[in-house]
Amino acid sequence: MADMRSPDAPAAANTAYVPLRPARATRHAVRTVELQVYEWGDASLATPERPTLLMMPGIMGNGIAFQFVVDELARLEGASRHIVSAEWRGCGASSSGGADSFLFPDHLADLDALVDVLSPDRPIDLLGLSMGGSIVTIYAGVRPARIRRLINLEGVGQRETSADVFLDNVGKWLDQLKAPPVVPPCSSFAEVCEQLQRYTPSLSADRVAWFAPHRAQVGDDGLWHLRGEPAQLRVAPFLLRLDEVLAVLGRITARMLWVEGASYGESRSRWNRHRWPGFFLTRDDLEARLARVRNLERLVLPDCGHLIQFDQPELLAAGVRDFLSRG
């Protein structure tokens, strides 16, 4: 990743969104890395009935991207909840630990260590998006006593693969280690905003202007680089088998809220065609997995694709508040 320095505030920042409940940025040393953490409130707000809510983003995601959801929660219930979001190793401003590949076991172990730091003596509420949803769900099955409530935003893993696909993936991974992936930089802050608006058309211009400096930073070369390690985009060589996934889902004791956008199938099909063909689940596969969860609730959000925290922060916040508040 390019050597980053804090840029002068772009002119567009004058019209940027102003958070209702600003985050406090900190870093936590966890295992071999330092994770970038954003915190709203502090641990003194946590109670057994309203524990710390930890929200984890997807691949190459930014923890601060949950700001709009946090603000909507504050409008509904005040600034009374301790909320934390962290960026996975190699993502956003978190360090990489010197790794040239990022695997689920490391993310899972980082999450376990982070939960111990944030709430050593009390279960937490845990939310994850996409890849983050898959990881927090595995964690809830492996460490059921550490989770009070679980919220999964479209993340239950990949399709079952054959032995031949496994061998192909390992070969692709080895090849990719020799040719690191490259994410082209943007030439200007305006281009960063334009790219964000293209990928997340639901974001208003003021929210794009606010989020863009968190998504990319200007380097010594004068170009705007995505924050995070492009190596995150390498193919995953070792995936959980279907029987392992089903065993994890069956061991979850926390009540789980499954959240999906009404455009789930459409957005997943688009990613299948253009990026990871055959990776995402069919509807039948998804339903078979969700059927293994003992205490499952569902929330389907209208006019919403995969980036739920951007597309429908108001409806997501209302659903999260209702789910976490039920006795």
Describe, in plain words, how this protein is organized in 3D:
The protein is an alpha/beta fold and 327 residues long. The protein is 37% helix and 17% strand. The chain contains 11 helices and 10 strands. The chain has helices spanning 67-77, 104-118, 131-142, 163-178, 189-199, 205-215, 242-250, 264-274, 283-290, 308-311, 313-325, and strands spanning 24-30, 33-40, 53-56, 83-86, 124-129, 147-153, 216-218, 224-226, 255-261, 296-301. The strands form 2 sheets. An 8-stranded mixed β-sheet has the order 1-2-4-3-5-6-9-10, with helices on both faces. The longest helix has 16 residues, at 163-178. The chain starts with 23 loop residues before the first strand and ends with a helix. The relative contact order is 0.16.
Query: What order do the strands of the largest sheet run in, or round the barrel if closed?
Result: 1-2-4-3-5-6-9-10
Helix count from the secondary structure assignment:
11
Low-confidence stretches: 1-9, 268-279
Average pLDDT works out at 88
Shape: globular
H/E topology pattern: EEEHEHEHEHHHEEHEHHEHH
Q: Approximately how much beta-strand content do the residues carry?
A: 15-25%
Number of strands: 10
Measured as a percent range, the helix fraction is 25-40%
Alpha-beta classification:
alpha/beta
Major beta-sheet overview: 8 strands, mixed
How far apart lie the N and C ends?
Answer: 46 Å
Radius of gyration, in Å, reads 19 Å
